[in-house]
From TrEMBL:
Record-level Gene Ontology MF annotations: UDP-N-acetylglucosamine 4-epimerase activity
Coiled-coil parts of chain: none
The protein, known as: UDP-N-acetylglucosamine 4-epimerase
Organism of derivation: Shigella flexneri K-315
First-level EC class: isomerase
Amino acid sequence: MNDNVLLIGASGFVGTRLLETAIADFNIKNLDKQQSHFYPEITQIGDVRDQQALDQALAGFDTVVLLAAEHRDDVSPTSLYYDVNVQGTRNVLAAMEKMALKISSLPVPLLFMV
């Protein structure tokens, strides 16, 4: 397969496992606020809170997988939960709409926040 796939937030545990299984079959990149320890060569530093950067980052991709989330109990300031998980998801969806990328699924808990 030659699909260009952008994983957003794939430097953590779940994203790293997904990269391990998908890297052989797709042209894949990771956009994350932190460098991947296992896949630095395909990681671009970025933040879902930055709409302009997202608009640029999504250019040229066929598929986007959103994994970015603040989920730890000790996030500070606590406003990051909303900024990343809600507004960040909105930003990704807006960038996808600009690029005419279709949404295939969205985690159910996020549907109630967006």
